[in-house]
Amino acid sequence: MNRLLLSLILAAPVLAGAAPSSQVAWTAEQLNFVKAGNAQKGQALATSCASCHGDIGDSATPAFPSLAGQLPTYLFKQLQDYADGSRDNPLMSGIAKGLSKQDMADLAAWFASQPASSEASGSADLKQAETLVTRGDNERLLVPCEVCHGNDGEGQKLDIPALAGQKAEYLSATLNAFKDGSRHNDVYGKMRLIAKTLTEKEIEELGAYYQSLK
Ligand code: HEC
Ligand code: HEC
Hints:
By secondary structure, this protein is mainly α. It contains 12 helices and no strands.
């Protein structure tokens, strides 16, 4: 692994000069606000999410992401991004606009406290995906996914989501959205830069790979 390259990709604001990709800044105040989210209140609010995301955020629909076990800070950021237009989706944008910041923190606390699910994937051969996740690809200057998303796809603090057990179809769709730029709420454009180098087949396999991780 080329250390210099890695630090460049991790640190460089690749889209310098462009409008900020998100309005959420992780100040101590913002972080404490999310940490103080009330899961019990979130549970009550979450009944309106169940038809798409499942009772505890364990989605039963391949195109709809699971929320159970996700990092609360990531969930909060996405809701905020939908609400202020940093991330667009015909189903989610209107819903998020109807939530207060307190609702978002409470919902984030509730879904984060629920157990993440996992399911086997249909794809037989995920060797290539595994190589990308654990070793990356020097030729494409591609950092291993696990550097950021964790050895078990468990995510990392703040805005780096857990991917383990997430719906394969959703994972691939959102990677394609990063690739074509229709999803652009990733700070410094890191995921867009990465997704651009991936082929259609790799994107499909990566989705299946992460869905099958426990
Ligand atoms: C009508 C179906 C529907 C309902 C109801 C709904 N969602 Fe969603 N949600 C979606 C879809 C579809 C996506 C993926 C959209 C995309 O690709 O941007 C999504 C994405 C999300 C994401 C981003 C997940 C990720 O991994 O990036 C969060 C967070 C979220 N929803 C929270 C909620 C909450 C909280 C509620 C209830 C207040 C809710 N949703 C209600 C359909 C729905
Ligand atoms: C430099 C760190 C970094 C690396 C390396 C990285 N990611 Fe990400 N990834 C992120 C961040 C940060 C986000 C959240 C962006 C946002 O705020 O919406 C993200 C989001 C995602 C999402 C969206 C998840 C969701 O629930 O919507 C997927 C899928 C994803 N990454 C897959 C990958 C794959 C596959 C690789 C390897 C090919 C990879 N990532 C490498 C930082 C990284």
